[in-house]
Amino acid sequence: RKAAVVSSKGIVASQHKLASRAGARVLAEGGNAVDAAVATAFTVSVLEPWMSGIGGGGHMLIHDAPSGKVHAIDFGMRSPGGLDPADYPLSGEGVASDLFPWPRVVEDRNIIGATSIAVPGQVDGMRVALENFGSRSWSESLQPAIRAAEAGMQIDWYATLLIGSSAEELNHYPCTRETYLIHGHPPAPPWSAGVAPRKHFPYLTKTLKHLAEAGPRDFYEGRLAGTLAEDIGKCGGILSRDDLASYQAKLVEPLVREYRKSRIHVHPELNAGTTLLKAMSLLEEPLGEHPAASGEAFLSIAEALDQVYRERLETMG
Fold first, then answer.
1. Which residues are CB-contacts of 259 (< 8 A; sequence separation ≥ 6)?
2. What is the pTM of this model?
3. What is the C-alpha to C-alpha distance for residues 105 and 118, in angstroms, rounded to an integer?
4. Which residues pair with 185 in a beta bridge?
5. d(C-alpha 167, C-alpha 109), whole Å
6. Angle at which helices 122-133 and 33-47 pack, to 10 degrees?
7. Which segments within the chain are labelled E, that is strand?
8. Which residue from 47, 205, 237, 258 has the fewest beta carbons nearer than 10 Å?
9. pLDDT tens sequence across 192-208
């Protein structure tokens, strides 16, 4: 059970309460919504590394209340320039075990190990967000994440479940085995009343501190970029320093669709935005015919989502 939160001055939601608390503290100290989002994003990357992190990427929508304008930032990952699709042949063994059921690739090269690593966009995306819409400095925005990294990630049942579900893959590589496992096994909370253990990430702590001092582009053009490219190359990956140096998160125009009395803004290109708009298009008429909480409405939603996600998996690569 999660407690409800009520506020007249802003709400921060994330997958970890301590990350949300970090963002709420930024708001309480006078920061704006983008400041809070950046602080939360970096902090949750420490506390829930299986879903977030500076090695990933994403998209951000920002609504400017005074002007009514919606801005979009694209900081999605990019394939390395040297990638050859022929190195990722389909195995014919059904779908991948990843979050998305893509057709399975030989040895899971597209989702596991150094050959699966694309150019990360997270760090530069946060730079673009702060420079264009934030009010706090880069270094200041990283401090909550640094404090969280220094304190360590508390191992609760959920952390044990997520790390345990990937233990086989984590055991393949010395660095991930050392970072997440204990003698090859997932860390576990105490079986009886007691203080939950913490997992410390000294290298991540060091990296975040360096980023705070050196600035975001060091991740792409400086010492961190060199270390990333070298380590990935040693493990058989193809991500290069040139790939990192050429990466730039960018402001893009969101796609807009009127839906009944509302207006929906989503990101363009390869993400779930266009999928959502297609689903809303399919649902506008059926949902108008049935009560919102009826079985017919739920069935219409399920059928629409099934159709648009099948189209996405077949046509969006």
1. 280, 284
2. 0.91
3. 16
4. 182
5. 17
6. 160
7. 58-63, 70-75, 90-95, 103-105, 153-154, 198-199, 250-252, 255-259, 262-266
8. 258
9. 667 788 999 999 999 99
